[in-house]
Amino acid sequence: MPEKKFLTGNSAVAYAVKLAKVGVIAVYPITPQTPIAEKLANLVSAGEVKAEYLRVESEHSALAACLGSAMVGTRSFTATSSHGLAYMHEMLTYAAGGRFPLVLAIANRSIGPPWSIWGEQQDSIQQRDTGCIQLYVETSQEALDTTIQAFKIAEDPRVLTPVMVCLDGFHLSHAEESVEIPDAGDVERFLPPFRTSATLDPDNPMTLAVGASGEQYTLWRSEQQTAIREAGSIIGDVDEEFGQVFGRKYGGLVDVYRCDDADLTIAIMGSFAGVARDAVDNLRQNGVKAGMLRVRAFRPFPNQVVRQHLANARHLVVIDRDLSYGNEGALCSEIRGALYGQGNVPPIVNFIAGLGGADLLAAEIESVAQEARQMTRPEERRTVFQFLENK
Amino acid sequence: MPEKKFLTGNSAVAYAVKLAKVGVIAVYPITPQTPIAEKLANLVSAGEVKAEYLRVESEHSALAACLGSAMVGTRSFTATSSHGLAYMHEMLTYAAGGRFPLVLAIANRSIGPPWSIWGEQQDSIQQRDTGCIQLYVETSQEALDTTIQAFKIAEDPRVLTPVMVCLDGFHLSHAEESVEIPDAGDVERFLPPFRTSATLDPDNPMTLAVGASGEQYTLWRSEQQTAIREAGSIIGDVDEEFGQVFGRKYGGLVDVYRCDDADLTIAIMGSFAGVARDAVDNLRQNGVKAGMLRVRAFRPFPNQVVRQHLANARHLVVIDRDLSYGNEGALCSEIRGALYGQGNVPPIVNFIAGLGGADLLAAEIESVAQEARQMTRPEERRTVFQFLENK
Amino acid sequence: MLEIVWHGRGGQGVVVASSILGTAMAIYEGKLAMSVPGFGGQRRDAPVIAVTRVDDIPIRRRDLKADPDYIVVFDDSLISVAVSGLRPDKPRHVVVNSTKSARELNLAGWEKLTIVDAASIATQVIGSPIVNTVMLGIFAAATGLARLDSVKKAIADVVPAEIREKNIAGAEAGFEAVQN
Amino acid sequence: MLEIVWHGRGGQGVVVASSILGTAMAIYEGKLAMSVPGFGGQRRDAPVIAVTRVDDIPIRRRDLKADPDYIVVFDDSLISVAVSGLRPDKPRHVVVNSTKSARELNLAGWEKLTIVDAASIATQVIGSPIVNTVMLGIFAAATGLARLDSVKKAIADVVPAEIREKNIAGAEAGFEAVQN
Amino acid sequence: MSEPSKFKGVGPHWPAGNTPLNVGSYTRIKPKIDVSQCSGCRLCFVFCPDAAISMDGDKNPVVDFNLCKACGICVNECPKKIIEMTTVESNA
Amino acid sequence: MSEPSKFKGVGPHWPAGNTPLNVGSYTRIKPKIDVSQCSGCRLCFVFCPDAAISMDGDKNPVVDFNLCKACGICVNECPKKIIEMTTVESNA
Amino acid sequence: MKIKDIPREEHISNSLSCAGCSELLAVRLALKVLGKRTVAIVPAGCMSTVNCYWPQIPFKTPMFVSPFAATGAILQGVSAGFHYRGITDVNVLAIAGDGGTADIGMASFSQAIISGRKFIYMCVDNEAYMNTGGQWSSTTPPGALTTTSTLADVTEASLSNRKDLLAIAMAHRIPYAATASPSYPLDYLEKVRKAAATNGPSFLHVLTPCPPGWGFPSEKTIEIGRLAVESGMWPLCEYQDGQLRITHVPRQTRPVAEYFQSQRRFRKLRPEGIAQLQKIVDARREALEKMVSPRD
Amino acid sequence: MKIKDIPREEHISNSLSCAGCSELLAVRLALKVLGKRTVAIVPAGCMSTVNCYWPQIPFKTPMFVSPFAATGAILQGVSAGFHYRGITDVNVLAIAGDGGTADIGMASFSQAIISGRKFIYMCVDNEAYMNTGGQWSSTTPPGALTTTSTLADVTEASLSNRKDLLAIAMAHRIPYAATASPSYPLDYLEKVRKAAATNGPSFLHVLTPCPPGWGFPSEKTIEIGRLAVESGMWPLCEYQDGQLRITHVPRQTRPVAEYFQSQRRFRKLRPEGIAQLQKIVDARREALEKMVSPRD
Ligand SMILES: Cc1ncc(C[n+]2csc(CCOP(=O)(O)OP(=O)(O)O)c2C)c(N)n1
Ligand SMILES: Cc1ncc(C[n+]2csc(CCOP(=O)(O)OP(=O)(O)O)c2C)c(N)n1
Ligand code: SF4
Ligand code: SF4
Ligand code: SF4
Ligand code: SF4
Ligand code: SF4
Ligand code: SF4
Ligand SMILES: [Mg+2]
Ligand SMILES: [Mg+2]
Predict the structure, then answer these.
(1) According to the model, what pLDDT value does residue C39 have?
(2) What is the pLDDT of residues H178-197, one digit of tens each?
(3) Which chain E residues contact residue B197 at CB under 8 A?
(4) Are strands H201-207 and H176-180 parallel, antiparallel or unpaired?
(5) SS3 A351
(6) In this complex, does chain H touch chain G, defined as having at least 3 beta-carbon pairs under 8 Å apart?
(7) Distance between CA atoms of A382 and B341, rounded to whole angstroms?
(8) Chain G CB within 8 Å of residue A114 CB
């Protein structure tokens, strides 16, 4: 029987890990992810989760340990944030290139200096080229549901690629709200037992993670690219199937709000989509046909659906909780790439907001949206930092 | 007196470090960078370089040690490749956020698995969001000259940001060619003594790398962004001044070849620009108005000059020696971003080539260019993998 | 949407109180709710706030910049902070743990005001001066927002077993203190 | 552009030979040159190649896929590999270290061909069977591409001090072996 | 939150010893020392983690309420047991 | 370079023990064992890093030229000194 | 050194640490001996977090917040940089936690020792990751609860299950290393002095009781530290020129049970476990005495 | 075990290693004793590089090429994964170099031991980073030249300047650890057997002479290993149940000078240096004998 609980995003993830019957958990503490590690430790010692709980010495080793256990056929999980995710960087590339189907939860946080334990998406954005799938969620419920979906996506024989489930630090990881915990039996039916292709098995000996060059190397890399592109459709399918079984779905690659007839669209990722929805409603009350496009899958990047939903937008505000220093917000430049070459594309305001844990209010989005409406020439571009413009 | 030598790209870098009078060198071995570490070790023990040579236990520590020595007012240098650079990821973010003016040489190499010791630019491309400046060079001479320039750029009070000098593994790091070694005195005049802002100094005590949140945090981040954008013009100025002193310059942010009247342009980074030049000449012999745009500065990304030089291009081939799995080559999507919103932008073929050390031949570029000429609608996009299309 | 802002000091259980009320509203009062803890590594005695939001439709905002309908203050040294800068545009109910009078607390102006010496109740009933569950009882009685029963169930859900009973008793005591 | 391809085995100094010739041409013959070593972690005895390119204009290509004008083979077990698949479209000069005859080596067809027992020269003069510098002398004499003097200067630049003299002598010996 | 940086250095660094906040301001119980009986052994001064006790002259320990967090260590460690915790109205 | 992968597994992994190349093929000097004097002590078999020596039956060590890299260890370690390096024409 | 000789000048105050924090006390006292010309490298952990958030900057001496794993490497760099510039009058001090030293920092710690450079590496050991709320670290003692180790009692495994940093430093043949406790200020500060006087790497392993993390009232901080030494849980030793010696033999030795009962983190420890641990502690004390007593 | 008992079955062949590689020999022999049901974790280093490049795959048993720093963590994961699945008949073996163990891998190595999980960690020590061409590692002996340490002679610093992995493992109270040499196959394989029989972590530190890296002709590989033991440079010991013992006392002891003269890497070592090192080796031998001899 489904059960209702009042949960933080972190606890929601922990319950998903429990429902997914994970066999090995290796998590290293870091704020704001730590409560996931702690909740899982409790569930394990309470016997509610039958998993091996590894206390490794770093995040690099946490992911490495998961690789090791996955390699011998055990579903494995880790979670981290910020410097911890940065410290995993080599291993993320390794897990993706080696096609290991792992699931990581990322409680998004900025990376210092300046040090900040608070929320920001820079940590996972910095991993955009590692080959891992990245899904960003809005609510505790979505965090739980997406984590379950993530195992199914990662382990799909056509994908076999690690999946990062990203939840905003504190704003989502630590805020509590109502969550429906799915029935264990339903989850078991939805999520087949762990499958992987690369195994250390004396009965079928292989050398894993071999070397290659030139042509053979390129072949394997192109297969890796095919798989993660393929994941694009699989993410949608899994979300659909999840909806049929559990009655909740999230739009697959993107989640749209009042977009169809919008001529001003706000693109965003993660839990600030909530205030973006408020901003959309307020703008509409003031006669601005606004809509919101929430990108759930940042990798693979959904170029096609983004094009589709922005086809009619005349103004675009892209909110980035990150910044690719020396260029612009990552979501913004990826969206530019998606729209490249389309007939009359909209001018874009790139709103850099929510850095270092800053709250984002609907009103702030609305005022940036009003700025955006002043821009008419598609080649116009503006980057607006929260707080600083009014200085 | 300038002196002519027959040098690999790696040795050229080592001579630049000598000329820059670096005080602390901390390098960890990895192919294809290792010869830099070895050459410097020899120069130090031969007394030709008066520096402290640190034998650390990892690349993370190599860059950390450089931070430490820079913090007490010593010009510091490290170099790495591939997994080593990936292992530095956290420290790169740290050095950039902390505004430490360091110079790193990167002998570009792929990151496994599949393992490959050979050339590819994935390793440095994966660092595009860390806040470091990235300069890609074509020849041994440019490697030497750019390394000297890099110190001046990094230490400019307006910049104070780490600079990565990227040279293709093997094709450039290990191939030998004629190099003019600048006169030590000239270099001393060109490059002022080491300056930095963040120092551990008992006579002016500060706490370095502090924490912050929200508004103050955002302020520091926006200053970081301003500094690296500013570096855009400073890179050009330094290259110009270098030209005046030493008679060699490289175009600053980009280096163009027969671009002015080109209606088919090949965009590329690094040492394969050589074969791209051949391809351009051959194409022109066959009546195709081709040109080449070599991007030297990938961070900061030169949106404006790229726009300028591609204004008239009707066809565009972007060659990426990297791949942002789940999207496309990084150079390609950044160029899309740069051209976004311009009047009739060209359709782009993204040619993924030279992975895992593969050679790239002019003929291969030419045939992709011919493909590109078939494309007419700006929204058309094609990703072509070397080797695999003809399969 | 109703917004309840909790003020206290590190160690007084402000975040837990907000979590308990949220649980009561979301699980036992059929509402939708969200509890937003004051973020950051507060150490003991530092001022802490938490915000509980209650509504019939999904709650979208997750910030701490609330425009409170209810203000609950665990430590009367924090009152000035708690009520400063509040626009007089809507009725707000202030619930305070204090031995002082409204005037002493400079709260004379407020018509919706509940002052109870929750500390001594807590010390008596729970055996420690940690007032959060007592304040929940007081809040329930004074505002009628949640039924005592729901609050007690929520306490049972949130509070660790070994101190559960005491805290339920604490809530009851707080509730009665207002009733009578 | 002239392309010289060097064939040998790990340990025979193929890469160094290419480097020395490149140095000779670039520094002492006023040409532009590039030396491209066979890439990768070869271990002893594995076949290795290197390519030297020489031109009057900047050299742009850095690959190993050469269409050689000169083919230098340090180990006659590699000849088949060295000459296989070469289009007959241009004259190519083959220089081999061997005790065998052209026929035994299946090189009868080649008009530009130099076969010298460099190994015994090396053993005599240098005291080890490492033939690379001897082969450079032979190459210089047989092809006239570089002056012996330039080769000797280049050896002095590239080879470590302790074995410098011997190797210069080796080059001379190789040179004379062809002259006479 | 405090006003953004006016300090003109570059990057997230800050002059040492800048502490606008008085950590002692959180607590209203503070130690009271009966200096008349004090032996001047200085143990309270030594053991106070927060540098809240200074020895004025050679004998008298003085508590700085702005720094004192009321941990009670001095009370516990004073060999003469002449320090006690008392509630103060204003703590600065 | 060899032809690209036909192996149907996913990712950069490969079935164990696949060695198309014979590392012994590089060298044309190989050990020759005078088995008539061999004591069967097996030390050559034990010390050969490349598993190039096998004991056929209980007595006779046999060298597999496809695997032998001509390191000379067996020659050096044979207590009876009955192994010598000889040049072979074809090495397989 | 006498209590009276402890300098009055303060080099850190107004820190956001919890009340009764002995990590802060250890730092405060060490800086008194080391003085103004000391630069501190402080990796992520309580001692950086409570001392680095703008605009509250409690260190009066230069301080750098170091990445968690990099302490040893930063030390090498700072020490080498000073050496390159010929600056010899500055103490280079690291203040790292147990997690930052024994776990994620182990590799750079180990290499820093081997580098032979001059620095003082101080590990303030509160036996868990306290800055993140008290998770298990590899120095967490057997029987202690943390938020990620709910180990209810001592098991065979759990006994070896703890890193002995002094032994590890000795295995590196470090010139100077010692265990210490701020509850014994003179012993502690004498060791800080010796560490600073060492011409090469030195290591101080300081036990720093943590009121919220260990579960005891803040006024007991010093007392708990004393109890750790008197119960034999934390012997005060020193390793110099390859010789290990005990620097303080407690007048009275207390049963470990007293130590365990003084802290909530040990609440799940059952009598058998306590008895077992008493044996181990006695054995260790004996071994130690043998080890330090000159052979025959 | 007798020579005759060494299994004939080969589990690795056609490796691209150099001729006379004793790392390969160590692996080949170990696999003979451990058998088919062994999974090998091999971090970046010669033993992965020469055995992993498509399409040449010499391992016949399962093998994983591990990231350089992660060996210990992968071991934990593999061991835990097998344990979770109830698989108990597979040996989990790491084959890591000195660089991969003593330098970049130190943190994960250290934590793997503390984890108490069952595995065999074998360090094949050729005393430098050979896969990248022979750079200094923290096990490079004093007086040896590498491409990044041109240290011409022994200096006070350089003497301590070497990590003793056995001592470090012992400081972790590891259940089983030993030094070994493939030049002593029976001693070596007996230790492999014991390591496999240990119900917990075990560590084998194997000296593996490297012809190109050390500068000696490939046929001397075994001889050099013997010389290392007979000269006292590489004592063969074993640590079990907290006891250290010497497993092989060479019949004859040779002067270290012989060892140094046998390898080009020591060519810059001057007589005074050699004399100094002879003293150190003698002292160590004595200390070792004392240490292992039961106290009075
Ligand atoms: C790479 C990385 N991983 C994790 C963290 C999060 N983190 C910061 S401090 C800390 C715990 C520190 O524990 P310890 O070193 O024992 O110091 P203490 O706080 O106990 O004084 C952790 C896990 C980090 N900052 N960086
Ligand atoms: C993070 C990282 N840094 C550097 C390297 C490059 N690297 C690969 S193997 C190796 C040396 C290995 O030395 P060792 O561990 O002693 O093994 P050996 O080759 O000597 O057997 C190095 C430096 C790497 N693969 N990964
Ligand atoms: S109570 Fe604590 S903080 Fe206050 S003075 Fe005493 S020891 Fe210092
Ligand atoms: S501890 Fe007590 S006796 Fe000693 S100085 Fe302080 S107050 Fe005086
Ligand atoms: S020469 Fe070396 S490889 Fe060949 S058989 Fe003898 S030992 Fe084996
Ligand atoms: S070592 Fe010599 S004697 Fe022993 S088996 Fe081999 S050949 Fe025979
Ligand atoms: S948690 Fe412990 S160590 Fe950290 S500041 Fe508080 S008392 Fe000090
Ligand atoms: S370099 Fe040394 S260790 Fe590496 S393969 Fe060659 S012989 Fe073996
Ligand atoms: Mg700690
Ligand atoms: Mg090695």
Answers:
(1) 66
(2) 999 999 999 999 999 999 99
(3) 9-11, 13
(4) parallel
(5) strand
(6) yes
(7) 13
(8) yes
Residues paired with G93 in a beta bridge: G40, G120
Among residues B332, B269, B291, the alpha carbon closest in space to that of B121 is found at B269
Per 3-state DSSP, chain D is made up of helix, strand and coil in percentages (nearest 5) of 40, 20, 40
Total CB pairs under 8 A between chain B and G? 151
**How deeply is B223 buried, as exposed, middle or buried, from its count of CB atoms within 10 A (0-12, 13-18, 19+)?**
middle
Arithmetic mean of pLDDT over chain B: 97
The answer to whether residue H136 neighbours chain B at the CB level (below 8 Å) is yes
**What is the DSSP secondary-structure string of G143-192?**
T---SS----S--HHHHH-S--HHHHHHHTT-SEEEEE-TTSHHHHHHHH
CA distance H147 to H215: 13
* Dist. CA B174–CA B143, nearest whole Å: 12
CA distance A25 to A42: 12
Q: Is G259 left (phi over 0), alpha (psi -120 to 50) or beta?
A: alpha
Nearest to C22 among A171, A176, A278 (CB): A176
Closest by CA to C64, choosing from A118, E58, A180, is A118
Report the distance separating Cα A272 and Cα A321, nearest Å: 9
**Do the beta carbons of residue G59 and residue E17 sit within 8 Å?**
yes
Would you give the DSSP letter of residue H131? T
CA G37 vs CA B10, C177, G61, G90, G96: distances in Å = 40, 60, 7, 5, 19
Q: Do chains B and D touch (3 or more CB pairs under 8 A)?
A: yes
Ligand 4 and E24: CB distance under 6 A:
no
* Residue contact G84–B23, C-beta within 8 A: yes
**Separation of alpha carbons E12 and A113, rounded Å:** 7
* Spatial separation of the C-alpha atoms in residues G106 and B231, rounded to whole Å: 37
Predicted-complex ipTM score: 0.97
Residue burial B172-204, b: 16+ Cβ < 10 Å; e: rest: bbbbbbbbbbbeeeebeebbeebebbbbbebee
Task: Tell me which chain H residues have a C-beta less than 8 angstroms from the C-beta of B115.
Answer: 44, 48-49, 52-53, 65
Secondary structure of residue H12 in the 3-state scheme: strand
CA max distance for chain H: 60
**How far apart, in whole angstroms, are the C-alpha atoms of residue H206 and residue H124?**
5
Q: What residue has token string 């510039």? A: G85
Sign of CA dihedral A114, A119, A125, A126: positive
How many C-beta neighbours within 10 Å does residue D90 have?
9
Distance (Å) from the alpha carbon of D47 to chain F's nearest alpha carbon: 8
Tell which residue, H7, H272, G140, has the closest CA to residue A57.
G140
Closest residue to H57, CB basis, from A70, A90, A207: A207
Residue G152 has pLDDT above 60, yes or no: no
Residues of chain G with C-beta less than 8 angstroms from the C-beta of H104? 107
Residue G67 has pLDDT above 60, yes or no: yes
pLDDT number for residue G150: 75
Query: Which residues of C, range 59-88, sit inside 8 Å of E by Cβ?
Result: 77
pLDDT at H160 over 70: no
Q: What is the C-alpha to C-alpha distance for residues C7 and D53, in angstroms, rounded to an integer?
A: 78
CB atoms within 10 A of CB F58: 8
With CA atoms as reference, report the closest residue to G48 among A114, A33, A60: A114
CB C6 within 8 A of CB C51: yes
Q: Which amino acid is at A86?
A: A
The candidate with the shortest Cα–Cα distance to H237, out of H173, H143, H165, H148, is: H165
The verdict on E38 touching G (C-beta cutoff 8 Å) is no
- Given a cut of 60, whether residue G147 has pLDDT beyond it is yes
**Rounded CA separation A330/A127 (Å):** 11
